[in-house]
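We emphasize that the prediction below concerns an isolated chain of 148 residues; any contacts that depend on oligomerization or on bound cofactors are therefore not represented. The input was used exactly as deposited, without trimming of termini.
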Amino acid sequence: MSNRKKLSDVMNAKKFVALPEDATAAAAAKKMLERQVGAVVVMKGEAMVGIVTERDFNFRLVAAGLDPTTTKLTEIMTPNPKTFSPDTPVMTALETMQKRAYRHVPIEQDGRVIGIVSLRDIFLEVKRALESDIENSDQFIVGSGTTH
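Result of the prediction step, given as a token string:
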């Protein structure tokens, strides 16, 4: 895969979900289902204060026996998550996410969250790049035949 690919190339801003810190886990789950996303950014006004992922729902809500209709996102979120800029190379983000066991990371630009990138987004980009490399190799091999 080209090292020139950046997170802005794989980020789907349309699927980005942000909710206020006083939103309930139930409200977040509904919004995540509607938008088909695995994470929601928790906001205090214009500032990101945390992220809630599917794993947080499993480990911090369900396993803890909390009521999703009364539990606030601030009770189950990961506060102050690691962020990347849209210009971060995809492979750099992938390596960091793998080392730190992240599945979702917010993308920040000029101090504002503009999206989220998931491992799935990155894997799809890697898959496309590998398929393109294979196709290019096949064309090179087939097209390189010589006649005497």
